[in-house]
Amino acid sequence: MQGKPMGSVQDSLEFMISQLKDEDRLSIVTYNDSVSVDMDLTKMDKLGKSKAQTAAKSLACKGQTNLSGGLLMAVKMLLDRDEPSDVSSVILFTDGKANRGITKVNSIINATKGCLTDDESKISIFTFGFGSSHDPICLQGISDAGNGVFYYINEDPESIPESFADCLGGLLSVTCQNCTLTCTPLSEGVKINSVETTYPVTQKEITDQKSGSKKIVHKVNLGDIYSEEHRDIIIDVFLPKIKCETDGYPVVMFTLEFFDIATSKFRKLTSIQSIDRVATIKTNQEDYALSKQYCRVHAANAIKTAADCGEKGDFDGAQTVLKEAISHIQNSISANDPFCKNLITQLQKNLGDVGDKTSFQSGGFQKCISSWQSNHRQRSNFVTKNYRNNMKINMVNAYYSSKNKAAPKYKYYK
Questions:
Q1: Whole-model pTM?
Q2: What's the farthest any 2 CA atoms get from each other in the chain?
Q3: How would you class 42 by CB atoms within 10 Å of its CB: exposed for 0-12, middle for 13-18, buried for 19 or more?
């Protein structure tokens, strides 16, 4: 990475440094053939910011790509720090594929998961891939392991600062940390068939204290939640036959547990979801809010399938999948919702990404993977802005304002 791209990275880092508070800490790790700690974890007071700005200006591109070495060094520095903080993150930037250290994609992802398994502070990892030479599956997998987001950055250097500002705005708006959602079947015979999410889901068998029957509990690790963000998890539930109509039939108990940043306390919220069991179900009875989320998940799955088709060279198949998803949304009861209209706009852009081999290999693949992850995880990145909250928008505006430029206009749809 030379010229304008590296200059934009340095410019972005300098902006990020300027936005950090005195009590925040920053470290800079570089990697090529080897790994180097350019700056240890340093408090961002006046002296620390000056040191960080100097380190940022000294960044240079050289050598190979020991991506795993740089990533694992950064994670280790956070794990070994003396004063753990509420929000701890690694921001990984690359323009190429790993060709030193651990080079196999699955091995890099598994190494990342292994480092974070016993981490009580729940370090998040955000990955930035510039251009079309990096491996989006690797960067998406790393960010998933670290409950972060993969940012694809196109050949336009101006996209780098906006992506950094989007990421920083999110990190500075964390309200709930280490969120988990536990789904427990209640009535006899009720089973959870599936949990529609790419967030990590674990299953555990328990014994019902009253009936003695076995039940499978599903636990979803949602990671950190930013202000204004939503997490909508679709649960497919099996209901057994019953002898007569029943009002208030208990189906599932949802338990949300998290650390509340505002109060510095752990919180636990419980909700029991019940339904009325009736002999005859009304036809065409569809929930508007659920329709929106079905559209979101359908669109995300279609984008991933299209990317898979593109990898196989089946661009006609990729186009068919995306067009079917557009039609599905257009025929839904939530088709006119601004959120769903944005989904259609995104899918139409993805049609161009998988239009042919040239488009796919010139950033189309990366855009699809980035869009797929963003829609499943309901968090914005540079490709998908549907989930950009006001803090992120304000941070992007602050960057453009610092450069005396007009900021793009976005609305937050949820």
A1: 0.87
A2: 74
A3: middle
